[in-house]
Known about the structure:
Blueprint lengths: L2 H9 L4 E6 L13 H17 L2 E3 L22 H16 L5 E6 L2 H17 L4 E4 L3 H14 L4 H4 L5 H11 L20 H10 L18 H21 L2
Parallel strand pairs: 1-2, 1-3, 3-4
Helix pairs in contact: 2-7, 2-9, 3-4, 5-9, 7-9
Amino acid sequence: xxxxxxxxxxxxxxxxxxxxxxxxxxxxxxxxxxxxxxxxxxxxxxxxxxxxxxxxxxxxxxxxxxxxxxxxxxxxxxxxxxxxxxxxxxxxxxxxxxxxxxxxxxxxxxxxxxxxxxxxxxxxxxxxxxxxxxxxxxxxxxxxxxxxxxxxxxxxxxxxxxxxxxxxxxxxxxxxxxxxxxxxxxxxxxxxxxxxxxxxxxxxxxxxxxxxxxxxxxxxxxxxxxxxxxxxxxxxxxxxxxxx
Length: 244
């Protein structure tokens, strides 16, 4: 869109902006490093489209990915850097006529930093409704509940580069999924409790999975990806509708 296009859209009542916060990090042997950013971009677009009075803002394509730095291609921002980017992003929108901002992270490492500044964003822009989705456990639960209905175990669905993420990418940007690498892309399939999550944050994902994958993409499909995405969009719309 051009600048005049955006101004005209705001004048027509499209005063909501939805934007995603992804990452650039390893996603095992079959997914590109911008997987989280691609998912964030598509999710934000579909949510904006469903809302009807909204525009999709540019996706933040880098996130907090220190726990993936063992692997080539990962680019990570410091926690405070990501927070400052979000602060400046929201300030720019608030000063140009938008009245609602929706922030949707899709990378696990971004939920915490966003949660820390959520209240601050509200206070900084009292005339703008700032809606930040910060519930990582709920986000994962949406995927796992969908997996169960598709005949995929939560271990296979995985927390990183497993069946759910590979399926999402097969639907969103299938041409970029290395389908020939899927047979060798099964990673950690054991228990994934708070203990394992802490191990990833403290030691890096490589301490749990040598190939950087938590899950197994063997059952992944484009059709599954479509269903995962539809359920994520529905959950985000419900969350936005309840936000105050």
